[in-house]
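Need FAD-binding domain-containing protein's 3D structure for a figure. Predict it.
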Amino acid sequence: MSNCRYLINSCIHQTYDILDFRTTQSSKTRSYYVRCQNSFDQTLDGENGGNRKLKILIAGGGIGRLVLALAAKHEGFEVQVFEKDLSAVRGEGQHRGPIQLVSSALEVLEAIDENVAKQIKEAGCVTGNRTTGYADGLSGEWIIKFDLSSPAVSRGLPLTLVICRMALQDILLNAVGLDIVRNKSKVVDFLEDPSKVTVILEDGQQYDGEVLVGADGIWSKVRAKLFGEREAKYSTYTSYSGVTNFVPPYIDSVAYRIFLGLNQCFVATDVGNGKIQWFANHKEQPMSNDPPEGKKKRLLEKFGNWCPEVVTLIQKTPESMILRRDIYDRDMIYTWGAGRVTLLGDAAHPMQPNLGQGGCMAIEVCYRLIHLSLACSIMQPACQKNGNKLRYFSHVLISHYLGDFVCAGLLPTYT
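Structure prediction for FAD-binding domain-containing protein:
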């Protein structure tokens, strides 16, 4: 697989045309064949008579789609992001809390834009230099501890950090630019023909491009159009989240801890500036309601007999700083795109917050997606001779091939 990545990256960065891409699979191995042709006499500058890079349309303006737009912008693509409500994007952090960025995701951000990565590291709180792991919810005793520092340091990678979701989105939005991100623009449908894909907005406006990336979340309209309307599944869990101005005595040694119990969990992390953020999941019927000023009382009923570390954090959190939302999921799908359209992030693979990898996976996929799109751009003269060629490579390289990487765990990971 490393050889395959090397060959594809060589074709991309050394200006080769990818003439053929095939896979064969036996019972134990999968082989990838890439045939390239030197094309130093060509240019990706359309104004100079060379190949024109793809125009990429992105539905949604959250973290994954903003990273994708930033990577596309730096590679010279024409890119347009359609977001239904930027105030909701920024406000999402109130409901979903800070986001953990592991070393591999930070390395990808550095590769995309060093200045943006620097801003993120300055705004975040490093947690990878302290103890992280699972603990028993009742006793508080450690079950297992994770070493996030040694693997990162040995590979020269940034340490894992936690950052406010709204701060991260603002950094990314400013870097991408409001000229690229269209506010109040909800994608509700799309049309596709052999030469382009057209997005249709809620107000009836239409925009054309070569590729559409549906990054519009778990309730994705793009996914529904691709694979049919299917109801999201309630996970059987509801989640409370809170932020408290409280510095526990163990803060210098413990950064991130997941307390486990029967049908319950409680996750707490240092987020810097004298604050601890936490979320608590427990089994509950969907759309249940708490009485006014009753969220803290409900939590203490559910977690009141847990260890002091958990109970204290709940008690120290003001009622106004506790939010509640039900957690939904979807059945796995094994292809994330068709033709000129592919999916990204929760639109493709919703991930529950207790896994702590949804944002990081989306960031890593963005990097690979843009470089595979570069391969498609370089191939355009050959594709023009065969109208189906671009559709074939868009599907295979961007959707199926990328889906294989992620589902098989073959995207680069370093922690």
